[in-house]
Amino acid sequence: MASGDLMIGMIFLTLTVVGILGNFCLLSSYLCLDCSGCRFRCTDLIIKHLVAANCLFLLFRGIPHTMEALGFRHFTSDLGCKLAFYVHRVGRGMSFSSICLLSVFQAITISPRDFRWAKLKVKALRYTSSSLFLCWSLHLLINIIVPMHVTANRGNINMTKRNEFGYCFASDYEKSVHTVNAALLSLPDVLCLGIMPWASGSMVIILYRHKQQFQHLHGNSPSNRSSPESRATTTILLLVSTFVSLYTLSCSFQVFLGVSGNSSQLMSHLSTLTNIAFSSLSPFVLMRGDSNVSRLCFTWIKGGGFPFICITL
């Protein structure tokens, strides 16, 4: 095994392990907050689903890609390959949709009474579960076409008309079919990319107006402490900007691979790295923005386990 492949494999392994632990810690913290009877926000449920989607992606994309980078190319069967690709595609899409929902619902939550979204505040909690169910159903249905064209990588299979993915490969089908499938799989991403900037822009406008009103009422030296809503909104804006940046990089690598026609292993690794990086970093961004969760995680780490945390809260 080349030293470069070993280094890439160790990077994938580190990101995957850290990401799984971070998502588990974040989910455990929210479950303990629920046990303690703390306040429940509509965005809390979305964050739980985001964590679940991140874990699916890390388990079914991070681990197989780590094994492939470390030199294990024939470790899965056809069924395992199809399952891995299907589940990680669903997890990736649901992660994207969860961030989109998070930005929209947070914009509704912080909107003032005179804002056009104020009427949706009361209905937001009621619509959260149905919105998440719709997103899961959409991604489960759309990605059914993925396992149809994916097969395990075996050394005795003809190498013509196929696209390599390390431990799996996708058969090369007709251009018209490929265009339709690509458009169908990209539709949720395009919708989310259109909604997120709109919701993020609305949050920025709302925060700016709130800051101006606060300064007008309290003079030129307002308190340095921000409200929980402002901290949550700032965290979501950071999360959205991080995801869009990494997603843009991933798409750029994929476009380069498609246009050049060169199956560069380095570009493939970089594209996967940008996706894994977000699933690994997002729980730490969320924990940093929520004081209750960050304090709970610190207590969990210091105490050596979470069974005692729900009692102390």
Number of strands: 3
Task: Give the strand line-up of the largest sheet.
Answer: 1-3-2
Shape summary: elongated
Q: What distance separates the N and C termini? A: 50 Å
Percent range of helical residues: over 70%
- Quaternary state reads single chain
Largest sheet: 3 strands, antiparallel
Strand content: under 5%
Which structural class is indicated by helix and strand composition? Answer: mainly alpha
Mean pLDDT: 76
User: Low-confidence segments, ≥5 residues, pLDDT <50?
Assistant: 158-162, 221-225, 305-313
The topology string of helices and strands comes to HHHHEEEHHHHH
List keywords for this structure.
75% helix, mainly alpha, 313 residues, 3 strands
What can you tell me about this protein's structure?
By secondary structure, this protein is mainly α. The chain has helices at 3-35, 42-69, 78-110, 121-142, 175-218, 228-260, 265-289, 291-303, 309-312; strands at 150-152, 162-164, 168-171. Strands 1-3-2 form a three-stranded antiparallel β-sheet. A hairpin with a 3-residue loop joins β2 (162-164) and β3. It is elongated. The model is unreliable at 158-162, 221-225 and 305-313 (pLDDT under 50).
